[in-house]
Amino acid sequence: MCDWPIEEEGRTWYGLKNDKIVVFLTYAEIPVQKSLQFVKHVDAGAVVYFGGTTRETFEGREVVHLEYEAHIKMALKTLRNIATNITSSSHSKIHRIVICHRLGVVPKKEESVLVALSSTHREEGWRAAEGALEDIKKSAEIWKKEQYLQGHSWKGDKVK
Amino acid sequence: MCDWPIEEEGRTWYGLKNDKIVVFLTYAEIPVQKSLQFVKHVDAGAVVYFGGTTRETFEGREVVHLEYEAHIKMALKTLRNIATNITSSSHSKIHRIVICHRLGVVPKKEESVLVALSSTHREEGWRAAEGALEDIKKSAEIWKKEQYLQGHSWKGDKVK
Fold it and tell me: Domain of life, per the record (chains A, B) (predicted)?
């Protein structure tokens, strides 16, 4: 178990890693299967997963690749707060959560962001996962560069 | 590619299997990773997954195991209709979908039901996945037996 402050492991930075929560940024491919295995819990009747994947086109223009940059320390703290709020509420029936954002170039069809969690019932799982994702888009200090065949544009990940 | 009518492959029955939709019932473990790989699409910015997993307790009673039975032909047709409706709507931006329900005994932490899909944007993905799951619970001809330490109860899967 490692905890804040961040610990560099190759090119993966953990904001939090304990028996309920894993939050990290990485330049490597996001480990979807491992994340789903982690969140499973004997008290959970539901596992909800969201993966944001790179599309071939954006507003009619062909995307060559997407690239993400972050203020690593600030972004990890933000993601950590989102995960902690979700699991620590006294009303929460969210048992385990993984939040991960990839940095650098993310090839087509691969995940740039992952939210995976388990909940006692399905309703609270849907709400928590969608809420976490919106919070990430809105708050995390992560920026996206869309490289087109001609030109590119930078934007906060908060923009869809 | 195999299509309706149902085709028996060992203990897996397909209601539909083409390049956009996979719907099946199985006595084997649900292939989560394979389902997620299948739904990924170059036009999709989102992958949404839901897995219904067996809990250790239900209403305070210890569950020894859950067991599912179906009217296989009817249930496949129902699941097929749910998947087809979601992908064939002219407004739909759902690119690929997998719906699967497991039959027989489902051990703790394993999936009894899976919905996985990809969508252009995240909002339509969340709505479609949750809608599909509710339709499955409400309509599919699948029944759940909860085996407790003492006694058991049967119920339609539509009951949470």
Answer: Eukaryota
Q: How far, in Å, CA of A40 to CA of B110, rounded?
A: 8
Domain map of chain B by residue range?
Answer: 7-156
The residues near A157 (Cβ < 8 Å, ≥ 6 apart) are A68, A101, A113, A136, A137, A140, A142, A143, A144
Contact call for residues B76 and B84 (beta carbons, < 8 A): no
Bridge-partner residues for B119, per DSSP?
Answer: B46, B94
Closest among A50, A49, A47 to A122, alpha carbons compared? A47
H-state helical runs in chain B: 32-39, 72-88, 122-139
Interface test with A, best of B65, B130, B138, B160 (most A CBs within 10 A): B130
Q: Which residues of A touch B (CB under 8 A)?
A: 32-33, 36, 40-57, 108-109, 111, 118, 120-122, 125-126, 130, 133, 160
Cα–Cα distance, A48 to A114 (Å, whole number): 11
Report the candidate in B117, B113, B99 with the shortest Cα–Cα distance to residue B24. Answer: B99
**Segment B50-95, tens digit of pLDDT:** 999 998 877 777 877 789 999 999 999 999 999 999 998 766 799 9
The structure tokens 């209709």 sit at B81
Topology classification of domain B7-156? Aldehyde Oxidoreductase; domain 3 (3.90.1170)
Q: List the single range of A75-84, A89-98, B93-102 with lowest mean pLDDT.
A: A89-98
Please indicate whether, in this complex, the C-beta atoms of A44 and B55 are within 8 angstroms of each other: yes
Which among A52, A27, A21 is positioned nearest to A159, based on CA atoms?
A: A52
